[in-house]
Structures
1.
Amino acid sequence: MRVIVIGATGTIGQALVKTLSVHHDVVKVGHKDGGFHVDIASVDSIKTLYDSVGSFDAVVCAAGLAKFGRFEELKEADYLLGLTNKLMGQVNLVRIGRQYLKDKGCFTLTSGILSQEPMKGSASISMVNAGLDGFVRAAALELAPHLRINAVSPPWVKETMEAMGMESSSGMPAEKVALAYLNAVEGTRTGQILDPRSLIKN
Amino acid sequence: MRVIVIGATGTIGQALVKTLSVHHDVVKVGHKDGGFHVDIASVDSIKTLYDSVGSFDAVVCAAGLAKFGRFEELKEADYLLGLTNKLMGQVNLVRIGRQYLKDKGCFTLTSGILSQEPMKGSASISMVNAGLDGFVRAAALELAPHLRINAVSPPWVKETMEAMGMESSSGMPAEKVALAYLNAVEGTRTGQILDPRSLIKN
């Protein structure tokens, strides 16, 4: 399959490219780096990407900004960042991409477990991730039977925790998280929110 | 308690006012009608409401616009309507209202079961409702122990189905839905998404 990986230069994205490349032709898309670029917050940028990339069988997105912060300090603009970037960015990748994706193709988006397992500071991220989960469950009903859509809802990633100076023993290595995306791309599921902890034995 | 009901003139809102008025002092707030007005999509309008309404113990919101429509016909603006009105409108009622609400007060917002039980046409509404659920679960952690927050996630309301010309025998009467809000206001829960079907025997 020819698979577009958006966010290919990120922590999960790099692991995704490595994992998917074993059996698939991977098109790496970065925000500024990589062979192709996209700003998922821009509909025009998304259209330009799809117009330029040629035909493809799958879109995997591991990109999207959202703001973590104390509830009393989160401003309206902080919520809107997540809504316009991580949430509507991925919604628009699907809305627009369905006209380009090959029949029987699939979208695999990125949510996060804060949707169901919030913590202090996650109000805007939990909102965005849960919204994405709701979108995926609903959109799957109308994309079927031609296209599939799923989200991977990663736990804290070990490499991210290390980069943030957090104690990382509870984190999942990015290469393990990537297997959930592989499962979504190669399998037959649709409308599912995949928790890598449930799919993969550490 | 003094309870502000936003969306007091709507189908659920009217039932809410009737139910809450038995034991509480209800302040009715409409979009254009009622003693007080608010446009929840406007931060300024929300501030004006809170500044003018006096002190209060609870905010109940049964207002919020979102667009139902076929996936291939939903435009970006249709998604943004739900995000800016039903979702961020209610988030802003909490963000701003926490500075006005009395200690031990509570917010009760309105989601909807399409968050978890989507149907064809619900992509944007499922996204908005699920996002609200995620926000409520997370915000509760930081509003505690001073304030509570919950969402009621109503099923299809009988009167709404009748107004839309749908077969309504599966719908729940608004007066039954209102009991879930009463439970949220009078009880001790926080961070919960209340399904009136689970709480109330028809």
2.
Amino acid sequence: VVRTRTSPDHSVLVVHTDRPDNDFTALFRTLEEDPDSYLTGHRATFASAVGRSFYSQILPSNSVHLGWTSWSVQWTSRLPVDPTEHPGRLRPACCDLDTVCSAYARQAARDWHEFVAFRGRELCDGGRLVVMTLAVGEDGERGFGPLVAAISDTLAELRSAGVVTADEVGRMCLPIVGRSAADFREPFAPSGLFERLQIEHLEVFDGEDRFWARYQKDRDATTFGKQWAQFARASVFPSFAPALERPAAAADVFDQLEAGVATRLGAAPERTPIPLAHVVLVKRPRP
Amino acid sequence: VVRTRTSPDHSVLVVHTDRPDNDFTALFRTLEEDPDSYLTGHRATFASAVGRSFYSQILPSNSVHLGWTSWSVQWTSRLPVDPTEHPGRLRPACCDLDTVCSAYARQAARDWHEFVAFRGRELCDGGRLVVMTLAVGEDGERGFGPLVAAISDTLAELRSAGVVTADEVGRMCLPIVGRSAADFREPFAPSGLFERLQIEHLEVFDGEDRFWARYQKDRDATTFGKQWAQFARASVFPSFAPALERPAAAADVFDQLEAGVATRLGAAPERTPIPLAHVVLVKRPRP
């Protein structure tokens, strides 16, 4: 899309960012070898990576024309509550304990404030930042209910079977926060400007459950369960690894967890609510 | 050094480059955690990485102020000779077979030409590139003789003991080339300019053998052997891994190889010749 707006000789430098423990070798190999890579056939396109948390300034001020992040700012920068002190809350941001929930709400507010502030410095005048992340629906919907229930239920079974200990399950938590439209607007109040950034577009919508859409067509409940379980393994199981006493056991525990989640979701397919936010920020030139 | 010449607010973006299979996580962790990291205490200093071979253009044209490479351009971009066809030449660039040596000489010339050409595009006007690499001394000295002999000798022993097969040893090779002062000048002939780059400084010198210098003081032959063996393991043993039939055996083979090299060098300490080149190129503004 960017290339349709530039001459082929115009250099484009893409900077990928992730935490230091990301597998950057896999990233660079894919960029080099994948026929669909943006490096293929675009001579003046370049790739680089920054292995640092984006909850700090990671690129020079006024150096970025277009920022894009998806499925990342819903992870908090830190655990605001020690899971060993309030164990057994798989999704602490929306649990049964007000002190835990509000600690996560405060962390979410602080993280969004920091995230926007640092991106505001990094963006050039007129630069834009596109954010896709987990939202809280206008009806308070936080999404992913069936999946979280299936994980929780399978963990209880694995604990009974002695595959994992009660302590391990107690420590497992997903530091994920959804944000409401009001939460996204918060740093920009009251003037509408923050670090010279302005909200150009803000939309909270109900994301499509693609596995459900496919199930509606083929009525293949087994595949429906498997697809959600695979998604969970790739996206959230890694967060459980630090809770395990023997890290070497992780692959086996995750195999059984994935199988249990697949069985449960396949047994009673239902549509998963996925509240999403799409936010576009633009940096105004200095007045 | 760079920071002594800028205001503290002046942004500096450092781009580390290596092949895709480098461990970038280790790089980013070190940058984050090491108290001596250049990120520590320098607010406007930023780090990034490019996991692509530098025998191509890897950064936008006219975007680099200062390039620096050490101990890298002596590795050829590819194996110009299939080691299975001319087996048993541990250091093919200076071996007993003219066709092999000259294939390496041609590859070295092409690689240096490409390396300089691509860096010439990436550098800004007035930008400089500092290169430290293996040289060939004016007397034809190619260096590292005692080390290569110790590796070769240990490999023969490990082959006799059945630790490695004759085929495996035959395939092992170090695609390393030294270059003479004339080799470095070659792309710049006859005008002295190539891709607007000019040689500002070129020096071929006899590098210090620090392990030898230490041995001269403490006469500790065992440590002398161990230090050279450790150096070899870190810098050249990884090149032997693809030659092994069972990659899982690499650690064990390398343990024995390291021990053998340490014993041999410790038994008869001698100074290792290390011919080095120090080259500084500068990019002239467009006339």
